[in-house]
Design brief:
Blueprint: H1 2-14, E1 19-20, H2 23-30, E2 43-45, H3 50-63, E3 67-70, E4 89-92, E5 99-103, E6 108-112, H4 117-126, E7 129-130, H5 143-148, H6 156-159, E8 166-172, E9 178-181, H7 194-198, E10 207-214, E11 216-217, E12 221-229, H8 232-246, E13 250-257, H9 258-267, E14 281-289, H10 293-309, E15 315-318, H11 322-333, H12 335-342, E16 345-346, E17 349-351, H13 357-371, E18 376-382, E19 387-393, H14 400-421, H15 437-443, H16 446-459
Parallel strand pairs: 2-4, 3-4
Antiparallel strand pairs: 1-2, 5-6, 6-10, 7-11, 8-9, 8-10, 12-14, 12-15, 13-14, 13-18, 16-19, 17-19, 18-19
Helix pairs in contact: 1-3, 8-10, 9-12, 13-14
Length: about 475
């Protein structure tokens, strides 16, 4: 009866057409992007304005219905998928898709939560500005989801992650009140930073409905290159050298193992291995220059001359045009797709201090090799900010499903124990969702968990905001 009354009230609030209950209509909202989780929901609610979101939350409080906020449904940790009870309602923010304002002088853009990341990039570009958050899913992920998970991507080294790119938020609280914090200020020292409570909270403390985002000047030129190296240790030294010579011009520094690129070539024949001979590691680096392409290329030539003389780099190829630059980035972005084609695998999105990355790889590779002879390591990621996608593929010719069933838990423990020893994080940019709650509760200090629970109880005492995600 409560659900029936709730759905009737929702239809009155936002229109019957925006309250989806038919299984054919709700199905796309109930399974996560990786198809790891499939839930059930009493309805999928599709509001079009922040006021409609607030009205729905008030109704949820009145009828004690839990809400699961969802953006583009591209998350990798099950954070936007309801549980199997059928008692929760998904609240989709896709119809909140207006760009409210662009302020070139303040270098800000104000957008609603359902605006796709690629659209923000496009509007910024049209205004002669750059919005530097860049992800493989940028054509389908939304700003609300990016902020809810504190998304990272390829530009964190220079520009920071989603948190650093946000100046203000508009949020519907768990009581259905609308907080207008859309202040485009770099300095606002007037008490607790409420904005940062909601960024990265995955909808467990409230629903982000709009944001003021930082813009940057468009670079005059970009230089993209691939550099071949003998080891992660050489890549780390090369990173230090690049930072010393290029300084803030360095905007991307991605590490890819030889096996990663071989895997891409195996499943995407048009993407050929970029060097004549195999190399243990390849770095994709990009410089963004505000002066000119000539200046950027001159700086890059000086960098590579020094790196070759110092024995850090074994070979290099520089993109000659935008098309070739895009091809280099496609190599990097197709690694997860190639993994999926190869079969089921065990994924990890971890971060360790940059200085510890080589030791982490060396020690953890050895431990996994001992535990699972023949396991193939697919190691790649954002070396410049310490974030690795440290993935494990089943042994060649082995049954991937059996491998997953038998080894996922012990391999996770090996990886997460190693991350913990190196004072790292078990989730660098994908969030915890429902995937990593138990591990997070295990590795976090008790005082940290209790503080998180205290915040949750204070803001959402009824536990109606995305329950079962982030913490228990």
């Amino acid at each position: 009866m409560t659900q029936t009354a709730f759905l009737t009230a929702c239809r009155d609030a936002i229109g019957a057409a925006q309250v989806l209950i038919d299984p054919h209509d709700t199905a796309p909202y109930l399974t996560d992007w990786r198809r790891r989780y499939t839930g059930a929901a009493c309805a999928v609610l599709c509001p079009a304005t922040p006021d409609e979101v607030a009205a729905l939350v008030k109704l949820a409080v009145e009828h004690r219905i839990a809400l699961v906020p969802q953006g583009g449904n591209t998350g990798l940790a099950g954070g936007a998928t309801p549980d199997a009870s059928g008692a929760q309602a998904v609240i989709s923010l896709r119809r909140l898709n207006r760009v409210r304002d662009i302020d070139p002088h303040n270098n800000t853009i104000t957008v609603e939560a359902g605006v796709m990341l690629a659209e923000v990039q496009k509007h910024a570009d049209e205004a002669g500005r750059l919005f530097p958050l860049s992800l493989a899913a940028e054509g389908s992920c939304t700003i609300g989801g990016n902020l809810a998970t504190n998304a990272g991507g390829t530009g964190v080294l220079r520009y920071g992650n989603a948190r650093e790119l946000c100046l203000g938020l508009e949020v519907v609280t768990p009581q259905g009140e609308l907080w207008d914090g859309l202040r485009g200020l770099r300095k606002d020292n007037t008490g607790y930073d409420l904005r940062d409570l909601f960024i990265g909270a995955e909808g467990t403390l409230g629903i982000i409905t709009a944001a003021v985002l930082k813009l940057h000047p468009q670079p005059a030129a970009r230089v993209t290159a691939l550099a071949a190296l003998a080891s992660p240790y050489a890549a780390l030294d090369f990173l230090s050298l690049t930072q010393r010579i290029a300084g803030p011009l360095l905007t991307g520094f991605e590490l890819m193992s030889d096996f990663c690129l071989r895997l891409v070539g195996r499943h995407f024949e048009q993407m050929r291995y970029p060097f004549a001979e195999p190399h243990a590691q390849v770095v994709l680096l990009e410089l963004s220059d505000s002066e000119s392409e000539e200046h950027a290329r001159g700086l890059f030539e000086r960098l590579m001359e020094t790196a070759l003389e110092d024995g850090l780099v074994q070979d290099a190829v520089v993109a000659e045009n935008l098309s070739q630059s895009r091809a280099f980035w496609n190599l990097r972005e197709h690694i997860p797709l190639a993994q999926a084609e190869e079969g089921l695998n065990i994924k990890h999105d971890i971060a360790v201090p940059i200085s510890r990355i080589c030791h982490f790889i060396e020690e953890t590779d050895a431990a996994i090799a001992q535990a699972v002879p023949g396991a193939r390591m697919v190691t790649f990621g954002h070396l410049g900010d310490g974030n690795l996608h440290y993935n494990v593929q089943a042994p060649e010719g082995g049954d991937a499903k059996t491998f997953l069933e038998q080894y996922q838990s012990p391999i996770n423990q090996i990886v997460y124990d190693s991350v913990h020893r190196h004072r790292g994080s078990i989730s660098a940019e994908h969030g915890l969702g429902q995937l990593k709650i138990d591990e997070a509760m295990h590795y976090k200090q008790d005082v940290e968990v209790q503080l998180m629970r205290a915040v949750k109880r204070a803001l959402d005492p009824l536990n109606l905001m995305n329950p079962g995600k982030v913490l228990r």
